[in-house]
C-alpha cells in the first residue's frame, strides 16, 4: 500500500493505492481489497485509519511485489511505482509507530535510506525517514 495523509488537512483524509501480488487469483485480490479497505468487517478496521477515516482509494491493482530479506540493507519494491531501502535501526529510543498497522507487534524502529512512490497522484520521495519493521502474520479466524 502506498498512502499519504496530512494532519494539516481538515479531517486528515487518506489517499492510497492498494497493491496485491500479481500471482494472486481474482478471488484472492477481491478478498484482500475488501479487508484492506475496511469493506469486510473485522478487527483490522480499528488498526487501519484509512478504513474508518475519510479516504480516497486511487486504485487496487495487481503488481509485481519483491522483498529483500537480507539483514541489511532490507528492501521492498512494487513494480516501478514503489521502492523502499532500509539503512538500519534508529539511533535513539524514540517511538515513531503511531498509526502504523502492526506497531503492537515486537519489532524495531528503522531508518529508510530511500522511500520513493510514483503512483498516480501519489508522487513523493524521502531519505532518512523513520519506519517500523516487524514480522507479519495474517490469519483468518
How would you describe this structure to a colleague?
With 141 residues, the protein is mainly beta. It has one domain (2-134). It contains two helices and nine strands; from the N terminus they run ββααβββββββ. The strands form two sheets. Strands 4, 5, 6, 7, 8 and 9 form a six-stranded antiparallel beta sheet that branches. It has a three-stranded mixed beta sheet with strand order 1-2-3. The longest helix has 12 residues, at 26-37.
User: How many beta-strand segments?
Assistant: 9
Distance between the termini: 23 Å
In percent terms, what proportion of residues is strand?
35-45%
Fraction in helix: 10-25%
Gyration radius from CA atoms, angstroms = 15 Å
Number of helices: 2
Features:
141 residues, mainly beta, six-stranded antiparallel sheet, three-stranded mixed sheet
Amino acid at each position: 500500500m502506498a498512502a499519504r495523509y496530512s494532519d494539516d488537512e481538515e479531517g486528515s483524509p487518506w489517499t492510497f493505492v492498494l497493491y496485491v501480488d500479481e500471482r494472486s487469483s481474482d478471488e484472492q485480490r477481491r478478498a484482500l481489497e475488501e479487508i484492506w479497505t475496511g469493506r469486510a468487517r473485522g478487527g483490522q478496521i480499528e488498526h487501519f485509519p484509512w478504513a474508518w477515516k475519510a479516504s480516497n482509494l486511487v486504485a487496487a491493482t495487481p503488481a509485481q511485489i519483491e522483498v529483500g530479506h537480507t539483514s541489511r540493507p532490507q528492501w521492498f519494491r512494487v513494480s516501478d511505482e514503489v521502492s523502499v531501502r532500509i539503512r538500519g535501526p534508529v539511533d535513539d529510543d524514540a517511538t515513531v509507530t503511531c498509526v502504523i498497522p502492526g506497531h503492537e507487534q515486537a519489532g524495531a524502529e528503522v531508518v529508510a535510506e530511500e522511500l520513493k512512490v510514483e503512483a498516480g497522484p501519489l508522487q513523493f520521495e524521502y531519505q532518512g525517514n523513520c519506519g517500523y519493521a516487524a514480522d507479519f502474520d495474517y490469519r483468518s479466524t
